[in-house]
């Protein structure tokens, strides 16, 4: 792991004093504009992050942890943040919350800000392309644990749900309810949990000797808002069941169906993923895949604290088991009610 850039190393690169570099990075009028631009460009290329609280703590620790989530408007992420805050508070840490909106640039900005605040560690639910953010964390030696999604390189500790099993359970349940034209309403396959859930869905179809139909697979935005647009073509394919990537997407799908004269589960049966109704009093009775959020939070904090004290320890991958919770958006065989 390389040492993070400092005022001194930037000064050596541009051939000036550390004091001049410091003034330039603070946009001081005492430094000529062309000199300032050269210094700022070098600092950016070297990945320099200004320390907002430099010298404030002799211990070198701030007892703060940053939590970066993809969409804090999603009730699942809100519940995860609450569980993490509770466990971290027990360990003597405060949290700083960032929302990436599933956007790599916003994720990078959040990580940069977290580093500038000298957080002791970071919990990240990565977007589809988190490489730049992870490189910056590594460059500055900030411990990081991933929540819910793998990175491509596999260099980070991570706590995952058993997403493959969840997708398999959801699709298998719809098959048991008599559905045969089951659509997958997912999100970009660059997100590992989306790949795993879809693969579980495909495995259930294969086990039932149903050939997957590519026309029944669609991708919406992870943050929702476009489900109607991607769902409309699926309805023309004679869909009788839908496996949704998340409860958020499933709720949006249910609203769209009802607005278009189709009833859940009378006309189309529907499963979600996250079981938000278990920890938020959501009135809509959605069959969904569940996991233990408290255990997930404790595993995340455990791995982060281990990494703080043992920075060179091997990478750990922890998987949280998933279960299906059956509610009113599916109709078991023999039940004629809507």
Estimate the helix proportion, in percent: 40-55%
User: Which range does the strand content fall in?
Assistant: 5-15%
How do the helices and strands follow one another from N- to C-terminus? Answer: HHHEHEHEHEEHEHEHEHEEHEE
Summing up helix and strand content along with how strands pair, one would put the structural category as alpha/beta
**Helix count from the secondary structure assignment:** 11
Chain-averaged pLDDT:
90
Q: What kind of sheet is the major sheet?
A: 6 strands, parallel
Cross-sheet strand order for the largest sheet: 2-1-3-4-5-11
Form type: elongated
Instruction: For the record, give the distance between the C-alpha atoms at the N and C termini, rounded to a whole number.
Output: 59 Å
Radius of gyration, taken over Cα atoms and rounded to an integer in Å: 24 Å
Multimeric status of the protein: single chain
Q: How many extended strands? A: 12
Which consecutive residue ranges, at least 5 long each, have pLDDT under 50?
A: none
